[in-house]
Structure formats: structure tokens, C-alpha cells
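As agreed, record passed on underneath.
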Amino acid sequence: MRAVGVPGHGEDVDELLRLVRRQGDPAEVLDWLGRRTGAHVAWIGREGTVEAATAGFPRRIADALTEQVERLSGGRLAAATTRVGEREVRLEAFGGREPRPVLVTVSMSPLPREAAALASQAGGIVHLLSRASDADGGTRGYEAKAAQLRFAVLTALLAGDVTMARRMTTGDVPPLLNAERVRVHLLHCPPADRDRLTRTYLDPSGYHGPGLMVNCPVFKEQLICPVAEDPELGGRFRQGEVLRRLVAENQGYALGVSRPHPLAATGEAYGEAVHALAVARNSPGRLAAYRGRPSLVHVLPRRAALAWARAHLEPLQAVPKPTLDVVRLAVTFSRSGVARLLHLSRTTVTAHCRRAEEALGVDLGEVRTRATLDLALSLTALQPDPADTTQADTVQLVAPPLGELLRSSPATAWAEPFLHPLRDTRHHDLFLTVEAWIDANTDAQRTAARVGLSRNTVRAHLRAAERLLNRDLLTTGSGVHDLVHALRVTGGQRAHPAAESGQRARWSAADVAS
């Protein structure tokens, strides 16, 4: 081993700095110091324990130094030298905040002056590396908490509760919550890119200017980005362009964009962005704005449809609210996705679904059953229509069955244009595949057997249908449910018995008129 001498000391410092620039950790610095001085070296942290040491460092000596370490750590001494047995021990404390970490060198003879100076410099480097590590840990903790808050704010907005979102952020309300209208951008990207993107565009308050970027907990390759539509907030003009540029510059990215919606309707905007993303992923430019027609829930006669929905859901009044919350999600997302979203086990989600199935007397494994239940839940979740207020509720009539609602002129006027792109003679094979897919309970393998195609061809047909219908069919259930209803309205599918039978309720003459 080369002795530490004056001619080589500057070179040693340069080498030490190069090690740090290569992002060396404290253990590497101690190993380097041990090789240069011939001493055993240890770093005792603020907790009084050895955090890093060279190989072969005599731990029994560290145990014998407890009193000296405490004096240095507590600020009573800056440095000390002692002997333990036949060994020379040098201790030096670093930093101004107590308890201070201590560098310990153990050698058979006292360190030369140059070696002791090098040890002090190396100890200062280790201290700085430790502080940088602590700062990085604090930054990661802050980023994690900020991400949790952003997710909570988004969850409140998706539920339509703007007041709750504002209460969560009291004292530092993000600009998004001051917006009148919002447009949801849904970015598809590699999962490993999501955290990098959220950090890159993070502002000092922990938000993203007039928008949010939130990791989707269900789909690991999606970033949910609600952006204020208000020009005075600097919303869509800046952030929308940022997201579009990311898509243009990265082949594996795609972007779906909703129409502008009131802030309280962020959930509806998210649903549109989901459908737009399905179209974008099947488009050459990998970018699509929502162009689809409204869902069936928005066109049915309001009071009559609401009467049916309340009757259909009446058995669920006996189940706990957490069960209803789980089922609202489970009709659209997979059960494993719901489990990730709500931080529950999949077994717990399944138990909640089974409880709802028993109450309703249905099988939620059937796509038509889920579509019917989703329609009822969506109808009861609509904002009240001021035009529906009436005093004419003295004459009570029986709520209509779903089949009657689906034969109404508004339903027919919605369903026929919805399916028109698939019924075009150029796409007849797509229509047959989609129809068989619903008959096969959305099982691609069974569909392939029915229509005589490969499973891959079936999925290719479904992706083409997504683009034509402006609906997501392969990610969530919302687009599938609209497809189920449209096929039933036009006579393409048999009515599901559970939807036609079941609960009855009283409804008014005003509902008939609607």
C-alpha cells in the first residue's frame, strides 16, 4: 500500500472527489480511505450505531468506545485520540446538529499528519453524502405525500364533490379547483415513465399548475390529467400542448381527451377520455378527442327511467354502503382493479359483489347483468333536472320494465346511429364479431370459436370497432355497456330476464308524460 505523503495528497483528494462525482456511497468512501491509510474505518451515525465500516473493522472496539462517542456526538468534543489494547483509535465528529455522526479510524500506530487530514476530509465527504441521502429521503417522502393528496383530490372530483376536494387542500388550493370547466387528458405511457413525468412537471406547491397528473391505480400505464379549461388560468393551452408534444416525441405514448365539462362533472369527463384513448391507441397519430354520442343514460325519459332504476336497485337498500361503493366500481372495472383502487384484497371485493348478487338475485359475471346494473346506478347518480319538479304525483302508476324503456323513441333514436358505423356493409364482419362477443359474455376465445376466427383476429376486430364506435371496449366496462344496450334496443340481442322481471314501484302521471 502506498503511504500517504505530501506529494500524493492532492491526488488523493482529486480521486476522492471523482469517487463522489460517480455517486459513490459512504461505504465506498470508507473503503477508499481504508486502502489509502491502512486503517480500519467506521462511520457511527446519529443513533450511535455503526452505519458503514470497512471489512474487518473490530466491532468490539466500537463497543468499548461508547462513552467517547457520546461525548463527541453530544458536542462536548470535536475530536479525540485513545488506545484500545494495542491499537490507536482516532475519533472525529462532524456537523453542527446534535447528535453528530462520528468517524472512527483504528490502526496499529498513530496516523501520520497527512493521513489524519485525509481522514478528516473523507469524513466531511461522508457527512455530506449522508445529508444528501437524508434530503433525498425527505424529498421522496414529500413527493409520496403530495401524490397521495393529488389522488385524494382527483377521487373527490371524480365523485363530483368539489367542496370536499377544496377542504382537502385548505390553505393551498390548487388552481384547478378554481376552474369552471375541466377537460380530462388520459395519457398512455410506459409505467416506468409515470413517476418521472409527474416529477418533471411538478410545481413548488406539489400540483401541476392549473392541472393534475395522477397515476391511475387501476391501469399501470395511464396518467389521469384533468386540466382547467379556463384560459385565464393558463390551462389547456400550456398543459394540453405539453401532453401532445409527449405523444409526438414518444412512439409508445397515446392521448385521449374529453370534451370540456363543469368541474363537478369530472367523472363524466374521465369516462369520455377513456373512450377517446381507446380510439387514440388505434389511430396513426395516437391522439384523439372524444367525438362519441352520449350514453343511453342521458337520453332515456328521465322520470320514467329513474322510477325503473330505483325499483331495480331497491334490494340494495339492505346492503352496507361499502358494498354499494364497491359494486359501483365493479360493474365497470375488473375486481382486481377495484381492489387496487380501494386498497382492498380481491377476496374482500368478491365478498362485497357476492352480497350484492344475493340481494339482487343476479350474477354479476354476466355482461348484460352488469350493463343493466350500471345503467340503474348511473341514472340514480345523475344531477337532478330542474324540469323534473312537479306536483303531479298524486296518481301512482307502476314503474315500467326496462324493456319498455328500451323500446321508447328516445332509446331507438340513440341506438340506431350508435350502431350505424358497424352496420355499414363495409364493416359487416366487425358487427358479426361484436355481436358474437357479447353473446359469448365478452370472452374472446369463445367468440373466436363461434365466428370461426382466431382469437387475435377477434381482438383486432374489437379494436377496429372501438375506433368506429368511439367507445372503449377492451379496458373498462362503460363502452361495453352502451354496446349491450344498443344491441338490445335494435333487437340484436335478446332481453336479459333479470332486466325485464323483478321489482316494481309506484310512479306518477308526470313520469308518463316525460
Observations:
- Residues 1-7, 389-397, 492-514 have pLDDT under 50 and may be disordered.
